Amino acid sequence: MNYFPDEVLEHIFDFVTSQRDRNSVSQVCKPWYKIESSCRQKVFVGNCYAISPERVIERFPGLKSIFLKGKPHFADFNLVPHDWGGFVYPWIEAFARNNVGLEELKLKRMIISDECLELISRSFPNFKSLVLVSCEGFTTDGLAAIASNCRFLRELDLQENDVEDHRGHWLSCIPDTCTSLVSLNFACLKGDVNLAALERLVARSPNLRSLRLNHAVPLDILQKILMRAPHLVDLGVGSYVHDPDSETYNKLVTAIRRCKSVKSLSGFLDVAPHCLSAFHLICPRLTSLNLSYAPGIHGTELVKLIRHCRKLQRLWILDCIGDEGLEVVASTCKDLQEIRVFPSDPFVGNAAVTEVGLVALSRGCPKLQSILYFCQQMTNAALITVAKNCPNFTRFRLCILDPTKPDAVTNQPLDEGFGAIVHSCKGLRRLSMSGQLTDQVFLYIGMYAEQLEMLSIAFAGDTDKGMQYLLNGCKKLRKLEIRDCPFGNAALLMDVGKYETMRSLWMSSCEITLGGCKSLAKKMPRLNVEIINDNDQMEVSADDRQKVEKMYLYRTLAGQRKDAPEFVWTL
Amino acid sequence: MGRGGTSSSSSSFESSNYPSVSSNSSNFSQLKRDLSTDLRLGLSISTSQQDNPSTPSDQQLLDWPPIKPFLREALASEENECNSATFFVKVYMEGIPIGRKLNLLAHEGYQDLVQTLDQMFNTSILWPEMDVENSEQCHVLTYEDKEGDWLIVGDVPWEMFLPSVRRLKITRADSL
């Protein structure tokens, strides 16, 4: 291959699109590293503190699209203080200074300010796509800047962000000359939008394929929008409250009938369930359905809807569908690949699904690969059956609402059940467990889960051996997050080199001490070992024997970060 | 958050059959006790706390179960709002001058509605599939639609009925 001119190699590498494959390509030899780096356009940085923006720019001069992740995953569950970090401004500032031709920016769990949004809108003339997932720190004023200045805006996708809403004029800021919009998602915005501006925007966007509205868009506007956008592929309905006005309803039915391309449906943020039948028309074509934000839909309505969805590949619902509803899913949705069942009563009350629903799904849906299941109870027998029926799981996440609950029938720990899962699902990459679990389950995971990359554990294990089995076994482990487990320094320090092969480790409410963490930090200079002391539990002169409440460590080439707040100590 | 050692007392959420308590379950119970509420996990929040939403909600665990804040908020607001959408119609029984009012949206369908009306008016409303044993004592449910016509309830799907109904009347079966 060294006899080919660089341009040929570049052309060949163009066909290699996945980040991992490109990383592999760049490791073959020096010339390949050079060529691959010079022509890579899309970069993924899984931990924004693992490397400095300057180094990224230096290595990838052709950078056009970047995906950055900030806070650790447990930040989703209020375990990480809001100002812990994950600020994107230094990155944007570096890109602007170095004249990077940025076109696409995707951020997850990061903090982005209005100033930063404005900087983006003014610094990158070809900027096309902004995707923000679980981010915070900005207001609708920042969105207005993006709307006003990005003349070629194609995609504005806001997923579950915490946005301070200064009312809806941002939408009107998109100039009349901008007709390039392909995707618009503002479902997470809490305030009103200018509805007339929204209608006009849809009318002048012939390429619009994905539209997700927030709750402030009522039925009659939805109907008008659908009339203007019959080529939509992905629709997020905002407010769907019943209006005892049959004319609007009939118009809606007509509009929906025209949308022959809709494959993905979500939203229903405010809903009166009785008029869901208008959507039965689209159901036969749907491949993706997300009703997890619609607690107003009763189980019976859900089931009625699902009976029409024979082509469904992805389903996110609330557990009010019940075990019986899941049996309907299992018998209707034969192409189902991913399902998520969320709890509708979050206050550790009663989940409406049990192991029965899970087994039904495993029996009826042979293509199932990815599951997130919140349930009332589980049994080893059920998990063993599921493991037998579905050996193709790549992601298996089970959350029993009472996290230390044993097998509901035998009162044994759930070690054997999860052991069966990891033994049978040889391609398992992500696992999350709950229920009563001893060290034994970790022995199984260490032995069998060869492809495991991400593991989340809570309230599990008996001794340090549990964590040691894990670290010894799972060669491909990248992210490990542990809370409320009795793992201490012996486990933490058993194989310190392992952490450089991983992206990060989170441990909270475990048995590790300040001394243990200090020792680790000393041995491994290329790890940032952070102690998060948000409740002022530790003093600066704390005793090394004191237990550490929250520790987050990650490998890095950028050294100690300079933006850590006072309550974060990097050892 | 404190952390207890092994505890021999059982808390309400642990299976009462399970003899010994592992340190992890006592972690979880300690977590909950430290929040110093007298809330026991057996209570279902939705039924007991609608009048006083401020008390237990803010003392609930914010980090368990592991769901995102958006979902947590969406579910919490659903609890507090109960039925956000209402549609009250007048209901009269033939021969009784004073009528009642009924929220149609609180019902899932015709069967649900008829059940409520049976209880409200202490009668049995004839339904197409029912056996008619004693038709003189039964009633029939009719409704007035937007055009002012009176029709028998039950001919059209529930979803089509709701937008068109203006009020209900329970008439004697033999007067039709």
Automatic annotation (TrEMBL), chain A:
Location (main, coarse): nucleus
Matches recorded under Gene3D superfamilies: 1.20.1280.50, Ribonuclease Inhibitor
Cited Pfam families: F-box_5, LRR_6, Transp_inhibit
UniProt-listed InterPro entries: COI1_F-box, F-box_dom, Leu-rich_rpt, Leu-rich_rpt_Cys-con_subtyp, LRR_dom_sf, Transp_inhibit
Boundaries of every F-box domain copy: 4-45
GO molecular function: auxin binding
Keyword Nucleus (UniProt): yes
Keywords: Auxin signaling pathway, Developmental protein, Nucleus, Ubl conjugation pathway
Domain of life: Eukaryota
Location of this chain's protein in the cell: Nucleus
Pathway(s) this gene product operates in, as recorded in its UniProt entry: Protein modification; protein ubiquitination
Protein name: F-box domain-containing protein
The species this protein was found in: Dovyalis caffra
TrEMBL record, chain B:
InterPro entries noted in UniProt: AUX/IAA_dom (IPR033389), AUX_IAA (IPR003311), PB1-like (IPR053793)
UniProt record, GO biological process: auxin-activated signaling pathway; regulation of DNA-templated transcription
Keywords: Auxin signaling pathway, Nucleus, Repressor, Transcription, Transcription regulation
Pfam families given in the database record: AUX_IAA
Species: Dovyalis caffra
Name of the protein this chain belongs to: Auxin-responsive protein
Entry function: Aux/IAA proteins are short-lived transcriptional factors that function as repressors of early auxin response genes at low auxin concentrations. Repression is thought to result from the interaction with auxin response factors (ARFs), proteins that bind to the auxin-responsive promoter element (AuxRE). Formation of heterodimers with ARF proteins may alter their ability to modulate early auxin response genes expression.
Record's subcellular location: Nucleus
PB1 domain mapped to chain residues: 86-175
GO cellular component, one term: nucleus
